[in-house]
Structure prediction request, 323 residues.
Amino acid sequence: MIPKDSSIFVAGHTGLVGSAVLRKLRSEGFTNLLVARREQVDLRDQAAVTYWFRANRPEYVFLVAGTVGGIMANSTRPAEFLYDNMMIHATVVHAAFLFDTQKLLYLGSSCIYPRQAAQPIDEGQLLMGPLEPTNEYYAIAKIAGVKLCQSYRAQHGCNFISAMPTNLYGPNDNFDLTSSHVLPALIRKFHDARIAGRDEVEIWGSGDPRREFLHVDDLADSCLFLMENYSEAQHVNVGTGVDVTIRELAEIVRDIVHPHARLVFDSSKPDGMPRKVLDVSKLNKLGWHPTIDLADGIRDTYAWFLAQAPGSIRGTELMGAAR
Prediction:
């Protein structure tokens, strides 16, 4: 177990995952948590990261920083997704090696797996086929991060591990329709339609692809579990092992946010992978299981969204839909 006074660096603490990891660590009584905003340390800059590690000497590192987004963001900013993510994990992993970090957990993404991977996807399917074109550049960067951790283990004996989460959602998610993932985008679309009095909500694609969703607080719990209980080279899938169609997901969001809306699917927009659900038996055998139901998690997320600007979105009136 990690001593409660250990110095722990959460890289990417303001994001969806990083903020959840911080909440989890604080709730568990950890007292020496280290964070750094981008204006303090640009994680793409090796010299800046090296300087910060020399000054702070973290004993444990949760490397959950990254540039992320949905299909539109990936297709319009491929160079940014590849460069930023490769640099972020490279600088932090190298600095952790230089300054003898006891353990590092690197967070990848389930998009690292081939487009035509057998479902559910187990860890052994990495690099077994072509990637999904709509997030290829992000996936390549994340694969490089996994291999980087493995290479530092092999060459230097570093206790660096990797976890691959499924699609995430929760408080502090990105609800910008030009760069968000599917679930927060659906919440935003149904919310905007309700505010504007519109009865139709357009959804990208056919609605047929199947996806798995994990609340970010469950992910944070799994990250601490793995940091304390896992020390092998192979990455570990993190998810629920249960998927839904995009249509079913949209219907759950509609029932919570705007119950009277009608779904309109734009099949001219890309679907992405036909199905993506993780085989999480490895993590389950280690003793970890998720606890947050999808509908309950979406209600929690929508309540958080409403609380951010109650004056401009009539939060009091609409909170009834989030309960």
